[in-house]
Design brief:
It contains 11 helices and no strands. With about 325 residues, the chain is mainly alpha-helical.
Length: about 325
């Protein structure tokens, strides 16, 4: 049983989280604020799940518990909900939540276990308040569930793809570091191009996708410029090799997406872009085939751009 002192500590940190979120989220539109705050809460939960050996089991328990406390189940409509943010937005805001979770957990007696309880408390406190503004709680709950699943998926995919690139593409198949960065960047760009072909994406989504790479790279300690847009393209990259890179890398990545049921091409692009950003950090910081950070960034950026320009939707056999 939690002691009164511990309960007060959790309440205090919950208020601190709300205050911090208030400084992060500047949107004036109530709907936009609600969506972004819920994404941050999803990020809080995601970070706590990654502590467990079976995160999917704990995730299901958390979802059922929240649903019980809110006296509703997530909306089960098969149609996409207009409340669902784009995957690029989900990644941005859930990463804010994950960062906030790590910073807060260090102050709590039971670390991320306490943070898990705080996240659930914040959700069940705010959803009824948002419902008064006209947002059905079952739809908000579904949105939260989908954001947690997306955030957890992005993290799992990132680690899986980096492992594949280092252990198989670079080590077993003897491809260079530069080829790994360009090739994985091309896969991210390829999925983005497919997403564009399927539906009209908001202007600037391509920039947001590159920001996914930049954030992930920075979060893992990559030094140097944060402005990848100012970096010159790696003009020594042979664009004729893009089909080869896609053929060598994409099948393994596609297999992972099929296995976990991630069909949305923009969601796939985000997952791969995070892996590209982490690979830049691995190469720049962890001495895995090390090259200069600015060159690594330029190669990743160039690969993504070339991938978006690749017009064949079927990779040659």
């Amino acid at each position: 049983m939690t002691s009164p002192d511990s309960q007060e500590r959790l309440k205090e940190e919950a208020k601190n989280i709300q205050t911090r979120i208030g400084t992060l989220i500047k949107d004036k539109d109530p709907k936009a604020r609600m969506l972004r705050v819920m994404c941050i809460y999803a990020g809080l939960i995601t970070e706590t799940l990654l502590e467990y050996e079976e995160p999917d089991v704990i995730m299901e328990q958390a979802f059922h518990r929240i649903a019980d406390l809110l006296h509703t189940d997530p909306s089960d409509s098969a149609e996409p909900d207009e409340l669902m943010p784009l995957p690029t937005v989900i990644d941005h805001d859930t990463e804010l939540g994950r960062l906030l979770a790590r910073a807060t957990a260090d102050k709590l007696p039971k670390g991320l276990d306490d943070l898990h309880e705080i996240a659930i408390a914040l959700i069940i406190n705010d959803v009824p308040l948002w419902e008064k503004n006209g947002y059905p709680r079952d739809r908000m709950l579904r949105m939260m569930v989908e954001c947690v699943i997306a955030s957890l998926t992005f993290e799992m995919a990132t680690q899986d793809f980096c492992d594949f690139l280092v252990e198989e593409f670079m080590t077993d198949s003897a491809h260079s570091t530069a080829e790994a960065l360009v090739g994985l960047g091309a896969v991210a760009g390829y999925y983005f191009q497919v997403a564009q072909a399927e539906k009209k994406l908001p202007e600037g989504t391509d920039r947001e996708l590159m920001n996914v790479m930049v954030r992930e790279s920075l979060s893992h300690g990559t030094p140097g410029t944060k402005n990848w847009y100012a970096l010159a393209a790696a003009n020594d990259v042979d664009d004729k090799k893009i089909p080869y890179y896609l053929k060598e890398i994409k099948p393994t990545i596609e297999e992972f997406f099929v296995l976990i049921g991630l069909d949305d091409p923009l969601g796939r692009a985000v997952a791969v872009a995070k892996a590209v950003g982490r690979m830049v950090a691995v190469i720049s910081v962890e001495d895995v085939g090390q090259i200069h950070p600015s060159i690594a960034k330029s190669l990743a950026k160039t690969g993504m751009i070339l991938g978006t320009q690749y017009k064949e939707h079927v990779i040659p056999a």
